[in-house]
């Protein structure tokens, strides 16, 4: 039982208890009033001057007094019975409602996250892939969030209009810290702050290349999951696409202890698990860009990491052919 429902029950019990107490108080006051009246009558009823003043005999006063006492006794009995009944009913009703609440308490208000089917440990299980490719207009209400690779995609792909929250060195932690998004008032805010003010129907995320030097991959996954959950909380009606880390060139991989494809594969497995846990779409962008050895071709990049215009458009073509809707 939730805390709010316990409070509701306590409030209901207090209201009923107060009502019973009020009724009892009124009854006691009534009895006291009549008792005082009886005392006065008994006190003065035997006084001849009082009897004469009442225009009757002493016997008549005695009869009236007896009748009054009988009525008061009867009313007192009725009031006592009513108070007892009210108390029992209030207690029974409160107990019944408490028991009913234990078993029938309504669930919390549903969010868009709650409407997505369970993944059952399978990538993209809560979504249906669209059969036909989309055109550029599909991305009009999308935003691309990421590091320098996303910056390059925005600059060198043929996508005419693209909204990006991206910066060199941006990561799953710095997304909360770096003020990179310009606002209308001339100020710059973090990505998370910007998402509070502007709504997008699709959100494309790509992080991981700047985190390849992290020692603990499970920490990377936890941070990635937290970021996804926070973005979803800010944009609950958006479909979230998480793009895997694009592999680096074979030459770069062979000479770099951090930026190599073994690390890329390892971190992509963590990203996939984060997508399963958070039930968002995972996109294997790299599969459309690599050669037969699973590396970025030598002619795809000048530094072995960032894609040139030709490969940014291959990237875009993959995104157009891989869109999803919630099942």
Task: Give a short summary of the structure.
By secondary structure, the chain is an alpha/beta fold.
Protein model, in words:
This protein is α/β, with parallel strands linked by helices and 327 residues long. It folds into 2 domains: 3-104; 114-326, 3-Layer(aba) Sandwich (Rossmann fold). It has helices spanning 3-45, 48-53, 58-104, 112-115, 148-156, 191-194, 217-234, 250-255, 261-278, 309-321, and strands at 127-129, 142-146, 163-166, 181-182, 188-189, 202-206, 239-243, 281-283, 324-326. The model is unreliable at 1-28, 50-54, 60-64 and 96-114 (pLDDT under 50).
CATH homologous superfamily assignment of the largest domain: SGNH hydrolase
End-to-end CA span: 31 Å
User: What is the highest CATH level, the class of the largest domain?
Assistant: Alpha Beta
The main pleated sheet reads as: 5 strands, parallel
Order of helices and strands: HHHHEEHEEEHEHEHHEHE
Helix percent reads 40-55%
Q: Layout of helices and strands, plus pairs?
A:
Blueprint (H helix, E strand, L loop, with lengths): L2 H43 L2 H6 L4 H47 L7 H4 L11 E3 L12 E5 L1 H9 L6 E4 L14 E2 L5 E2 L1 H4 L7 E5 L10 H18 L4 E5 L6 H6 L5 H18 L2 E3 L25 H13 L2 E3 L1
Parallel strand pairs: 2-3, 2-6, 6-7, 7-8
Antiparallel strand pairs: 1-9, 4-5
């Amino acid at each position: 039982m939730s805390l709010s429902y316990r409070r509701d029950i306590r409030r209901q019990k207090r209201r009923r208890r107060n009502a019973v107490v009020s009724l009892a108080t009124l009854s006691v006051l009534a009895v006291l009033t009549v008792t005082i009246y009886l005392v006065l009558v008994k006190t003065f009823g035997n006084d001849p001057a009082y009897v004469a003043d009442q225009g009757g005999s002493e016997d008549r006063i005695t009869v009236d007094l007896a009748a009054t006492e009988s009525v008061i006794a009867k009313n007192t009995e009725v009031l006592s019975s009513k108070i007892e009944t009210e108390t029992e009913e209030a207690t029974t009703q409160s107990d019944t409602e408490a028991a009913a609440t234990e078993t029938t308490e309504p669930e919390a208000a549903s969010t868009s996250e709650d409407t997505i089917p369970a993944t059952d440990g399978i990538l993209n299980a809560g979504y249906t892939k669209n059969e036909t490719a989309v055109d550029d207009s599909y991305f009009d209400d999308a935003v691309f969030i990421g590091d320098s690779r996303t910056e390059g995609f925005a600059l060198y792909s043929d996508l005419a209009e693209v909204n990006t929250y991206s910066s060199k060195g941006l990561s799953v932690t710095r997304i909360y810290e770096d003020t990179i998004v310009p606002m209308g008032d001339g100020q710059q805010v973090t990505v998370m702050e910007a998402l509070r003010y502007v709504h997008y129907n699709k959100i494309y995320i790509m992080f991981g290349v700047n985190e390849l030097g992290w020692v603990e991959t499970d920490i990377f996954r936890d941070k990635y999951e937290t970021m996804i959950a926070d973005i979803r909380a800010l944009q609950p009606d958006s479909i979230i696409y998480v793009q895997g880390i694009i592999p680096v060139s074979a030459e770069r991989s062979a000479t770099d202890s951090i930026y190599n494809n073994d690390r890329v594969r390892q971190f992509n497995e963590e990203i996939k698990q984060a997508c399963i846990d958070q039930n968002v779409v995972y996109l294997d962008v790299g599969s459309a860009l690599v050669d037969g050895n699973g590396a970025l071709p030598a002619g795809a990049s000048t530094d072995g990491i960032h894609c040139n215009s030709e490969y940014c458009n291959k990237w875009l073509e993959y995104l157009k052919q891989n869109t999803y809707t919630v099942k």
